[in-house]
Amino acid sequence: TGEAISRVGELSCQELASVSWAFARLEVASSKLSEVVSDQVVAKLSEFSSSTLASMAWSAAKLHDLGDGMLDALLAHARPSLVDFPARDLAGVAWAAAAAAGGGAKGDGFAAELEGHALAKSAELSNMDLSNIAWALAELRVDPDPLVAKTAEEVRNKLSDYSWQELGRWLWAFSKLSVDCGEIVDAVSREALDKVSSVSDQDLSGLLWSLSRQPGSIDPSLVQALAEETAQRAGSLGGQLLASTTTALARLGHLTAPLMQAFATAARTNLREFSP
Predict the structure, then answer these.
(1) Per the confidence metrics, is the pTM higher than 0.70?
(2) If you ran DSSP here, which 8-state letter would residue 83 be given?
(3) Which residue in 51, 27, 58, 52 sits closest to 40, CA to CA?
């Protein structure tokens, strides 16, 4: 961090975004680095492109040590020109606003504006962008019905192309706001069921954790399949994944005796990986 701090004044907007992204990705926090980066970002806001601004907003939301003030400044600067943002950058800003509790976006209509721009650009959104925005709107508690209605057919047609993570975000977003789109939820659940055996350990744990926060409208057969897959993999899960998966299945009411036995055996094997 010392080298980055000493040279931050020489960095371009793209380099500032790249350095911040790297530290956020590695979860390296430094109050001094955050201070000098924030100062440079605010001073150079007018020079930021939509892509570097979206990347910087992601870093600010991901690494809270960068401070809410910088995220507020980034969102405020982006707001008047969101209509011109490419779909990918719009999705990035939406994710950052939601991940950081909006940086003020919830109360002043910013979230509703994001939804309007997403609707206008829905045809340009990739699978990942669309699922990210659906998740962000759910987090910001914006009524997603218009976006869902406009994109429902596209989502159904593209389901086989969606990654596990994207399917998980759609399921979580639908359940979060109890969206009335049972057909899509059923279709997404069926597609997810078909992909259970190919999902990574990380994505399996992440999906279970997301579903456990809003379990009401999730297909029980999907949860059962995920639980069975987890039991088979319990021995290969690390301590952190094992802990989060156990908690998620308990919340979902699927922590059965065989699962508990599998988890107990795995926990003994991975005991050194657990935090005290």
Answers:
(1) no
(2) G
(3) 52
Is 246 within 8 Å of 263 (Cβ atoms)? Answer: yes
* 44 token code pair: 């150079």
CA proximity to 131, closest of 90, 194, 173, 99: 173
- Which of these, 97, 187, 168, 93, lies nearest to 127 by C-alpha position? 168
149 three-state secondary structure: helix
What one-character DSSP code corresponds to residue 218? S
Spatial separation of the C-alpha atoms in residues 257 and 259, rounded to whole Å:
5
Contact by Cβ (8 Å): 104, 72: yes
Q: What are residue 26's phi and psi, to 5 degrees?
A: -90, -5
pLDDT tens for each residue of 212-237 = 776 666 778 888 888 888 888 877 77
Burial of 189 (0-12, 13-18, 19+ CB in 10 A): buried
d(CA 115, CA 125): 13
User: How far, in Å, CA of 50 to CA of 65, rounded?
Assistant: 23
